Every structure is written in structure tokens, then in C-alpha cells.
Amino acid sequence: MRESIHPTDRTQALQLTKFGDPRDSVSLVSRHTRQPDAGELLIDVHAAPVHPSDIHLIRGFYGLRPQLPMDLGADGVGTVVGAGLAQTGGSSDAA
Question: Which domain holds residue 25?
């Protein structure tokens, strides 16, 4: 069993639930912090911008329409607070 590596067991995210006006389409959600899997990092985000392309995505004007609900944000500034453990042992199916 892994020990918790994050100072809190909750995390927050901006979630897009429908396309349209950002005031009606985006909400702040709170959920349990998931421990990172192998090859993943857990980052305490200090700041994350909202770009014009984010607004186009929220309004449904972007070139793609992802499946909803989805968490918003593609970049930010933060501190790495955890890393998933590398898998060791086992076999590889690579030829």
C-alpha cells in the first residue's frame, strides 16, 4: 500500500460540462487526489492561464469537441510533489 504523498487528499479542477457561455458551462469541482501511476507526476499547480483557445473550446467553436465532462487546462506553473513508481521486473513483449 502506498503512503499519501500530497499534503491534502483533495484537489480542485475547472470542469467543462457543456459547450456555451463560460459562466454557465464551467464549474470548480473538488475530488480526491489520485496518486500518480508509473510515468506520471503529481503537481501542485500555483498558476494556470486561460487562453483564447480555451474560451473557443468552452464555447464549442474550437476545431474539436471533446467528450464531456472534461477538466480544462493544458499548462501551468507548479511544484512536483510526487512521482509514480517505476515498474520493475516482469517481461517485455517487444521483439
Answer: 10-83
Choose, from 13, 22, 35, 62, the residue flagged as catalytic: 62
Rounded to 10 degrees, what is the CA torsion of 56, 57, 61, 67?
Answer: -170
Establish if 5 belongs to a structural domain.
no
Q: For residue 91, is it within any domain?
A: no
Whole-model pTM? 0.71
In angstroms, the Cα distances linking 29 to 26, 32, 33, 56, 76 are 9, 10, 12, 21, 18
1 inside domain = no
Task: Indicate if 62 belongs to the active site.
Answer: yes
- Convert the pLDDT of each residue in 1-56 to its tens digit: 344 454 568 889 999 999 999 999 999 999 999 889 999 999 999 999 988 989 99
Beta bridge partners of 30: 12
